[in-house]
Amino acid sequence: MKGVVAVVGATVLACTPLLSSPTVAGASSAATSSAAMPHITAKVTKQGIVVRGTAGLRAGRVHLTVKGPGTVEFVSFDPGYTADDFVSDVNKCGEKCNVKALKRALANATIHGGMTGGTGTIVLPTAGSYTPFTIGERGAVVGQPFRVSGPPRKSSAPSVDGKILAKKGLSWGGSSMLPAEGRFLFKNKRDSGVPHFVQLQQVEVGTTADQVIDALLAGENGPPPPFLEAGLLTGTLSPGHSMTVDYDLPPGHYAVICFFPDPNMKGMPHAFMGMVRVIHLM
């Protein structure tokens, strides 16, 4: 499997073969209630990204289903910055990250979340244009943009079983225990200052966050990391944004990891800087 998937927005800078292509959890059987919430579906195909359900969409929270193995995420751009600019900048941040391009993308794009093969909710907060994108073997690929109207539709976030919070100082907060099947809120707090995503990776019982970090830093020259097969991957959230994720995973211990490349540390993945926490799914 490949060693790098670079993303600005959902930027995965994967540092081990396993983490570059995690086993993704199936959607929880307790699907998000969408009675008062519009539902969009997205899928990565050989031709690009197909998104359905966007006609007449108003700003606000939407229920999202991503079909297939690809990750689909949603981004909005500042005036004067285009999807072509975004693709160009993202593709310059690979194994050797062009920090200038990374900073340009982060200054002009807002990432609203997404997921890999599953269900959840994301928030499209204001009227305007949104663009789906994915990053894979061909690098960054964008789909057809769509517009949402305003004013924002009022709808509450669905009930959740716990929270995963990205906080200032490249740290995780929130629940230390979750049910093995359910729904969690992923929030990137505004004061975190940088985008984050969640990779949940099952680890051997007793594994500590320091052991995960040491294994990542050791790379191919070190012992095999203590990872097991199960896991899931969310899309990236810009600071101040949130989403919910439905999941169904085997019980056990999981490392909460973010590999987003840090713009102030020459693109170093956040996990290498200590953004790892171990939680328990029961």
From TrEMBL:
PROSITE patterns, per the entry: PROKAR_LIPOPROTEIN (PS51257)
InterPro entries: Cupredoxin (IPR008972)
Signal sequence coordinates: 1-25
UniProt keyword annotations, A-Z: Signal
UniProt protein name: Uncharacterized protein
